Structures
1.
Amino acid sequence: MEKKQHRKESISHLIYRLIMIALGAACAAVAIELFLIPNQIIDGGIIGISLILDYLTPNIAWLSFSTLVVILNLPFMYSGYKQIGKTFMFSSVFAVVCLAVIEGALHRFHPFTAEPILATVFGGLILGIGVGLVIRHGGSLDGTEIMGILLTKKLPFSVGEFVMFMNIFIFGWAAFVFGLEQAMYSVMTYYIAFKTIDTVIQGLDETKAVLIVSDYYEEVSDAILHRLGRGTTKLMGKGGYTDDAKEVIYAVVTRLEVTKLKSVVHEIDSNAFITIMNTQETKGAKFKSAIH
């Protein structure tokens, strides 16, 4: 059998990806240099460690945040080369270098605010947008998760648990260095950034996957198609108690259409069983065109 050749990324798409990664790194640099550092607030992961070490070594000029974030990230990205791939590693190194260069160039600008709450909220939002853009376009600004992937193969922890333990240590360290109040602001910043990253990666068009079990599946499927403009898929199922064959309707709708869908289904069958699930991402030209 002839080996299938994978299509290489086009130059135009690569350039677009690198521009978006650089834009994401620039947003992260603005958040760090003009919001977080002046207010002694940190983020989690390698960025947080770099911020603490930068604060603890004020007399070592070359050991700045820009230098530290590169030095601390590169070993993990190099180690994760075989696990995650050449493209990811290249994109991540490019993102980290952009972050370091842009953050260094922002030193001459005055902070946007000296109010901790404003720095926490807007710093977290802008940082989340930046990190989210980098991840969405195939890179990373933090080697913590890569380290987690490598270490959890030998340790009885998941990647998520490892990252959580790391951040507990980092924010605990921040409490000793900056004080308990600044550590609490840092936890808030991390949470805001984390939620913003999810929004950027998944997009604003939040969708829901719906499973419907009804004896009137033909009428329900037809109503969803004509009243909501959504296509459906019929899945074959079997009742666990009666062992009777059942047709299960599968559909994907936007968050704003959930109430209408439930109303439409219950107009036809008040006993219909409906399960609504969150979806990470929905791809497909037909679904997108239906939204717009």
2.
Amino acid sequence: MHAVRKTLSALLLGLVASAALADAALLNVSYDVARDVYKDYNPLFQKHWKAKSGETLELKQSHAGSSKQVRAVADGLEADVVTMNQVNDIEFLMDKGLVAKDWAKKFPNNASPYTSAMVFIVRKGNPKNLNDWSDLVAPGVQVIVPHPKNTGNGRNTYLSAWAWALKQPGGSDQKAQEFLGKLLKNAPLFAAGGRDATTTFMQRKMGDVLITFESEAEMIAKEFGKGEFSVVYPSLTMQTEFPVAIVDKVVDKKGTRKQATAYLEYLWSKEGQENAALNYLRPRDPELLKKYAASFPAVKTFTVDEVFGGASKAFVTHFKDGGTFDQIYVAK
């Protein structure tokens, strides 16, 4: 017992010492499947910032379902920056007075440094021949997806399926709602977040198809091997964006605005964009997108603005209490 106490004391002293060595510390509160992106990005930025400013910077990460994360920030979790997978979550913090009203103009590309697309992950050999959204509503097909009410991954899946149904011959909002009802009935559960959905599908072996970001497919390949699954690009899918913002109240309180701004700006640097590409996120830099073209097949996408009139409008219509998701889910 004495040895255990000594070990714990040594660990705690080490943590205190490492924190004391840092000139400043930033907390990045992010969505569930961004762990690897920022695990790789943080050392790159720390090296850059040390060379530029002479400061040693401690960088901390927090990851969970995106809506859960922003609620935690609103409730007092002191994030210097938020890096999310849907505009609504940044706007939630804007409405709480934590993020600037013009946050999307603070950085290029509406403050989204890279993009992705929603794809299907199917079992090896695609035994149920799942090639497009219409195949996912067949009897006996089990669809694994994070909760559309609480996660960006789940919402992007829902909106992708809705847009596909809307674009079919004779498509209408009513038909799209009926289609989503069938699709959600084939979901045996709603995962807590994107990484939890992956674990459910790959480790617990539940479901016939996992719907997730294109980037997550490559993370699965790294962990489980490419031969264990296939990636299917549906005929239409959503171009997903990943907005970032400074949490003004926190950086002003801590005096970390300079570091937080630089941390997010560096996502658009050549090094930051290459890190995105190496983590299978589509970089905004056209040269790097061309360099890594083999990782990013051509796919027909739509934006939330084009089909739904913007993220805010989509949220109110579909995901606010009493919206179409609630109506469908009650029917489910």
